[in-house]
Amino acid sequence: MNLYPKFADALALPEFLKQYGSDTDRSRWSKVHDEVHLSDEQRALLGKFTRETHVLVLAGAWCGDCVRQCPIFSHFAEAAPALKVRYLDRDDHADAQTELLVNGGKRVPVVVFFSEDGHEVARFGDRTLAAYRAMMEQHTGASCASGVVSRGDPLLKQATQDWLDQFERVQWILRLSPRLRQKHGD
DSSP string covering the chain, please? Predict the structure, then answer.
């Protein structure tokens, strides 16, 4: 399935949360957003992103994993205007969910990166390596994370870097693409 047409149906984060989130959901996302802080080095790196990248995020406003990770993307897009981040609700887009199963399961968030002209570059999800490492250390069963982040949460800082590594990888793939270098004359 070509997922790029879904980008046109996807929503910017405020519209996504307005349409799909409850007041409680929006509050949780806002609290995490306020706790994300990019370092000067991270901002400088994002400032080097020049290739327009369409970022499609399959998410659920109710999902603790989404709450803990997706607000990070807003900070990336603010620091790198070339990043166009949009959200699809997992339940309203069952066809996309089926295409983006992780280990045979319906997981969110899942991010699909596209070039400016709609070619899929990469997929990543559902949790970062830092999150899985923490889960392995504190394994308590199959319960879903609450999405609650405490002030100064070191896992949020690690997750931010894990996601930035993925966004950076995609940017360099796009910047070094012979097809796009020819198109942009660089």
Answer: ---THHHHH-B-HHHHHHHH--HHHHHHHHHHHHH----HHHHHHHHT--S-EEEEEEE-TT-HHHHHHHHHHHHHHHH-TTEEEEEEETTT-HHHHHHT-BTTB--S-EEEEEETTS-EEEEEESS-HHHHHHHHHT---SPPP-----TT-HHHHHHHHHHHHHHHHHHHHHHT-HHHHHHHT-
